[in-house]
Amino acid sequence: MAKSKILLIYTGGTIGMMQDVKTGSLKPFDFKSLTNQVPELKKFDVELSSISFEKPIDSSNMHKDVWVKLANIIKEKYNKFDGFVILHGSDTMSFTASALSFMLENLSKPVILTGSQLPIGIIRTDGKENLITAIEIAAAKHKGKSIVQEVCIYFEYKLYRGNRTFKYNSEHFDAFKSPNYPFLAEAGVEIQYNERALLKQNKKALKVHAELDNSILVLKLFPGLNEKITSSLINTKGIKAIIIETFGAGNATTQEWFVNELKSAIAKGIVILNVTQCHEGRVVQGMYETSSQLKRIGVVSGHDITYESAVAKLMFLLGQKLPVKKLKDLLEKNLRGEITSS
Fold first, then answer.
1. CA-to-CA distance for 57 and 48, rounded, in angstroms?
2. Whole-model pTM over 0.85
3. Which member of 14, 133, 165, 276 is catalytic?
């Protein structure tokens, strides 16, 4: 069989930094000499190519234009490669993975994001294992087809569906969790794939959506929410959608002023999405009276979507310039495996 062709895309982040022997400072890694720095890659029966951003960016500076750039690179190279590995800073990796999952419709090849907590030039780095195994998974096939056919994150021996993850730890190597969906693969002596959890794609052609709209407000609720400040935020000019991060199973204050502010926003055509602050579990509007009023006024349930995925999904759907009713319907629909279907 022909070798799998994998494209490595370096955006920036800790994994791509090397320590200067003389100064001890960190500087961007030269990916043209990748196999010299990570000689283990020479043992793979894989054709490896790489693209590096001219100016690597810290993932804290990630924005929608970079997501469009990544999606367009994959679109341009899609027929030339069997899989893609994106090296990315871990802080906003879940946002990027979520965004790409919506932007790359009918994806039938692996797009795997990985990174590290320590630079690849540090002796104790986790970057080498993450990089090597991400490439191995991206190259893996069964009966001529890629085993993984979705956007994923690989970190510390686990492969996750990208739009189900969040970064929960900044100090340990196991930086990501996916509490509402099982991992897709686990790397041990062998890589064990969770076949039931993997997305099964149809044979339609890849369709790339490059229009994103970030006219979104995120309102995280807390006891004692200030009426004046909250009202000012909700009535900010140009807002098209609001994510409210609620308590528990989607609960919020029942104070009249708050409910009226939301009703007024909805009447103006603003979409309001209810996402729980809990990392595990789901929004069930109507379970308690404190969420029933949200359902009655037209707030959309986010079910078990992550905050990161909710942001990306709204930006994607707003970019489609859909009628409000259609947009609301799609928010509650499982598009890319981001929510658990009822």
1. 23
2. yes
3. 14
